[in-house]
Amino acid sequence: MTEAINSEYEGSSEGAVRHWEIPYARLEDATPTPSNPAAVLAVGDDENQICGTILSIDAGDSVAIIDFTASMVYRQPVRNVLTYSGEAENTFGAIDIGHEVYYDRSPTMPAGVYLSTSPLDNLGATTSKFGHVVPLTDADRALYPKGAATASTQTCGVMQRGAGS
Q1: What is the pLDDT of residue 124?
Q2: pLDDT of residue 11
Q3: pTM reported for the whole predicted model
Q4: How far is 121 from 79, CA to CA, in rounded Å?
C-alpha cells in the first residue's frame, strides 16, 4: 500500500504554526504594533495569559494577527528589571541565556518594551511567562550575559511559550 500525505493538513518539522486574529479590545495593549509582543487579556489568571508576537494588524477590522507558535524565536527588547518597590523599578540583573522572560504591563517600562525578567509587575501582580532568552546567532551568544545591576534594556532572542504549552 502506498503511503500519502493527507491533503487536509500540513506536516512540518517545526510543528504547528499558530496564527490567530485577535480583536484589539482583547489585548493588554489595545494599540498593537507589528513585531511587538502581545498578551491576550485573561479572565482571572494573568499568570497563564496566552502570549505571542504581533505579525500584522488590520486597522479596519481592529484585529491583530498574532503568532502564538510555541518555541518560535523573535528578536525582542527585554528590560533587566528583577523587582519593583511600589511603582518604581528596584533591582536589576544581567540577562543570560535560559532566563525566563515575562510580559510586563508596568507603566515604568520604556516605550516599545513589553518584556522583562520580573515575575511580578509594579503592583506586585503575577506577570505572564512569555518565554526564555536564547541567542540569535553565534556572535550574539558571545555577548551573554547582557546588562548588569543597573537599569537597561537589552535586545535578546526570545523563544516564546506560545499556545499549547
Answers
A1: 92
A2: 43
A3: 0.86
A4: 12
Share of the chain above pLDDT 90, in %: 78
Taking the C-alpha atoms of residue 16 and residue 2, their distance in angstroms, rounded to an integer, is: 25
Ranges of residues in the chain whose predicted pLDDT is under 70? 1-15, 44-46, 164-165
Take residue 50 and report the three cell numbers written for it.
496566552
What the block records as the C-alpha cell of 70 is 510555541
Query: If 0-12 CB within 10 Å is exposed, 13-18 middle and 19+ buried, where does residue 94 land?
Result: middle
CA–CA gap between residue 11 and residue 69 (Å, rounded): 15
Helices (H), ranges, 108-161: 138-141
58 in Cβ contact with 45 (< 8 Å) = no
> How do strand 88-92 and strand 37-39 relate by DSSP bridges?
unpaired
Model confidence over 64-75: pLDDT tens digits? 999 999 999 999
In order of 17, 60, 110, 153, 158, the CA distances from 113 in angstroms are 25, 25, 6, 8, 13
Domain boundaries, the chain: 19-67, 73-160
For the chain, the distance separating the N- and C-terminal CA atoms, rounded to the nearest angstrom, is 36
Q: According to DSSP H, which parts of the chain are helical? A: 138-141
| Cell numbers at 88, concatenated | 518604581
